[in-house]
TrEMBL record:
Keywords: Coiled coil, Signal. It comes from Rhynocoris fuscipes. It comes from the Eukaryota. This is Uncharacterized protein. Residues 1-24 form the signal peptide.
Length: 152
């Protein structure tokens, strides 16, 4: 009989093997900033793939190479390939300059993030001071004012 610890290790290895086997037929390779997608060792031709969903933000393709595979490509260059519930993701628009609109949105988001960080730091500082006052008051009430002042 296997010890419980070894049984758990075998189960984890088995799950990892299943995950790798499920995605074994999918590869994403980037050449000169352009991703190439391979399914079952065949390069996917997106011009021949069926588009099953199209929004202003992304398109979902079903390649002829495997009808179970879904390829999602965002307008900003993000890429996700799913197969039987597992996913490979390539994030971002590699080797592409931001458009002026994207740059403006990015700058605006960074300013908002900076304001939020400053507000958060201020709130945390106030919370720390409030906690210190409450602890001091509680110790003074429990131990007496003379003991507390001599203690610190």
């Amino acid at each position: 009989m296997l010890p419980v610890n070894m049984f758990i290790q075998i189960a984890i290895l088995f799950l990892l093997f299943i995950h790798q086997a499920a995605m074994a037929g999918i590869s994403i390779i980037q050449r000169n900033g352009v991703p190439d997608i391979y399914v079952n060792n065949k390069k996917v031709d997106l011009s021949k793939a069926n588009i099953i969903e199209e929004t202003p933000e992304y398109k979902v393709y079903v390649p002829d190479e495997d009808p179970e595979v879904r390829i999602i490509i965002s307008k900003n260059g993000g890429l996700m390939v799913t197969d039987h519930g597992t996913s490979q993701i390539m994030v971002g628009s590699v080797n592409r300059e931001m458009t002026p609109e994207e740059k403006a949105k990015f700058d605006q988001a960074m300013k908002k993030l900076d304001r939020n960080m400053k507000q958060l730091e201020e709130r945390l500082g106030n919370l720390g001071s409030q906690i210190n006052r409450q602890v001091e008051q509680s110790l003074t009430n429990v131990l007496g004012p003379k003991f507390y002042k001599n203690f610190f």
